[in-house]
Amino acid sequence: EIVLTQSPATLSLSPGERVTLSCRASQSVGTFLAWYQQKPGQAPRLLIYGASNRATGIPARFSGSGSGTDFTLTISSLEPEDFAVYYCQQRSSWWTFGQGTRVEIK
Amino acid sequence: EVQLVESGGGLVQPGGSLRLSCAASGFTFSNYNMNWVRQAPGKGLEWVSYISSSTGMLYYADSVKGRFTVSRDNAKDSLFLQMNSLSAEDTAVYYCAREYCDGGTCSFDYWGQGALVTVSS
């Protein structure tokens, strides 16, 4: 089973700041990696697929990069609605998720 | 508008069974692979099961293999998860999710609102 490790577990930031979230795979997943955002009481929302492709309707401030084992989700300038938990997910071998990174208001 | 609506959640005793349903609308259900994902209270996401669009391929997480069965009725645009031999560790919100594949890479582009399953005596 491919294990995804996200870091850090929690980020405390202010609106307007730049955010960089990390996801590391225990073995190569190519670019078969997606990112999701989840707010309390809501289902996850797809942000990025194929490591770097924004899903429909996702603002341009969200971007993804990486391949192989190291991936990054960047939010160029935090908006108030971006405070949430972010998960990475791989599909190289059966689906697994990272443990999540919480982005909270400082 | 794509919609996925789960139902069938509730309180069940350890060792009991429950059947979840997911009603799909707004897209051609039979063209899409579907998945179940769960989230225990205060925890992260865990993939549970996959069913292909029409070829009958089924896959399960090791944690539910032999106890859960996924199925679908393409004529009724519905997805199901039969859960048997439930334990407290199965307590979670269960989401159905549509699998979207583009250029060889896949992700879950639409999710239901979730159905809460609580296993307790």
Structural class of chain A: mainly beta
Shape of chain B: globular
Number of helices of chain B: 0
Helix content of chain B: under 10%
Number of strands of chain A: 11
Report how far apart the termini of chain A are: 36 Å
- End-to-end CA span of chain B: 40 Å
Considering residues with a beta carbon less than 8 A from a beta carbon on another chain, report the largest interface and each chain's count: A-B, 25 and 21 residues
Got a strand count of chain B? 11
Enumerate the spans of chain B where pLDDT stays under 50 for 5 or more consecutive residues: none
Give the low-confidence spans of chain A: none
Which quaternary structure do these chains form? heterodimer
Element-by-element helix/strand order of chain A: EEEEEEEEEEE
List its traits.
heterodimer; A: 106 residues; mainly beta; seven-stranded mixed beta sheet; four-stranded antiparallel beta sheet; 11 strands; 0% helix; globular; B: 121 residues
In short:
The complex is a heterodimer of chains A (106) and B (121). Chain A is mainly beta. Chain A has strands at residues 4-7, 10-13, 19-25, 33-38, 45-49, 53-54, 62-67, 70-75, 85-90, 96-97, 101-105.
